[in-house]
Amino acid sequence: MCLAIPAQVVELRPDDNALVDLAGVKKEISLALVEGVAVGDYVIVHVGYALNKLDPEEAEKTLKLFAEIGQLPADGDVTLH
């Protein structure tokens, strides 16, 4: 099973790429499939591609659920920036 997870855009990069942060893990992804993404936005990421933008409140709820089921750090540090 594959999961698409919310991540916050922390830096826009050339060629439709961005650096995202997910619970402290930073990864470069492609924004080729999503328009109008800005630093601070949340996107749903799947296999290195942003699939769509996500409301910050929904992102926080989803990240907390992942933490509860043990897929993110259990220390509760999933507060969105």
Summarize the structure.
The chain has 81 residues and is of the alpha+beta class. It has one helix and five strands.
CATH architecture: Roll
Q: Compute the separation of the termini in Å.
A: 28 Å
What string gives the helices and strands in order?
Answer: EEEEEH
| Mean pLDDT value | 85
Strand order of the largest sheet: 3-2-1-4-5
Radius of gyration from CA coordinates: 12 Å
CATH topology: SH3 type barrels
Percent helix = 10-25%
Please write the CATH class name.
Mainly Beta
Strand share of the residues? 35-45%
The count of β-strands is 5
Structural domain tally: 1
**Main sheet overview:** 5 strands, antiparallel
Structural class: alpha+beta
CA-based shape: globular
Tally of DSSP helical segments: 1
Which stretches of 5+ consecutive residues score pLDDT under 50?
Answer: 76-81
